[in-house]
Amino acid sequence: MDRAKTIHATQDGRLTNTQLQKLLASLFNEFAPTLPSFTLDMCRCLLASVDTAAVGSIDYEQFTELWKAISTGTRIFYNMPRQEDGKLGKDQIVPALQAAGLPQDNFLVQLSCVRYADQDNSFRYPNFICCLLKLKSVIGLFQAADRSGSGTVTLDYHQWLRLAMYS
């Protein structure tokens, strides 16, 4: 993996969304050739989930964190009962979120379906991974901002923009 990362990274060792897409395609081709690939937009989502500085690229440590999250999400996806077409049905989202250690409620499932599911409310593998990483990212950001554990946070304009636009 180090060699593949080096081939695809910029001179300063960082990965942009385009380079991330090429690296993931290379890794999946080598380790799991039957998995569907990630689109460039999905790679933007994945990159944003670990790009804490919001600079549009990630370093090796962030890539390692991302790869672990993708691997965990992949295990969850493939350990859940799936439909005949290989997609994860809406009824499996709550157990999948539980398996990922994330909170789950009807509103969260509804938002996840609206944003990441197909018209029949089922999740393809890449969409599920993007959904899972987005949820981990925004929930983590919320929990970090909610230091008192009150369930309420106060954000300034830039914090709100970062959360709304790039997480």
UniProtKB/TrEMBL annotation:
N-terminal signal peptide: none
Gene3D superfamilies xrefs: EF-hand (1.10.238.10)
GO molecular function, one term: metal ion binding
Cross-referenced InterPro entries: EF-hand-dom_pair (IPR011992)
GO CC, any one term: cytoplasm
Keywords, in A-Z order: Calcium, Cytoplasm, Membrane, Metal-binding, Repeat
Primary location class: cytoplasm
Protein name per its UniProtKB record: Uncharacterized protein
Localization in the cell: Cytoplasm; Endomembrane system
